[in-house]
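Hello again, I could really use a second opinion on something today. I've been staring at a protein lately and its backbone has me curious. You're getting the sequence in one-letter code plus the fold written as tokens. I'd be grateful if you could look everything over and explain what you see. No rush at all, and the record is pasted right below:
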Amino acid sequence: MSVKTIAGLELNVSDEGYLEDMTQWNEEIANEIANEIGIELTPKHFEVLNFLRKKTEAKEPLTIRGVGKSGIVNIKELYALFPKGPLKFSSKIAGIPKPTSCI
């Protein structure tokens, strides 16, 4: 665990840069993490991020297939929103722990 300044706040992050405390997350933090990855967030991105946060709070496992069946986006759209690692990067931006299904 290390400390990283994101959106002007010092936050504890894992070795891979995931927030350790998801309650510290806000949209400004999401935007800064997304910018580091090279993603410009849109309202559709935030729909996915909020879906992931709700699932995580409910202690439900996250999968790409599950997000694709959410009714928010299909799998192809998820890959378009978060290229090169849709669940990995969307989780990081959402301020939630890295899903166990991600390597």
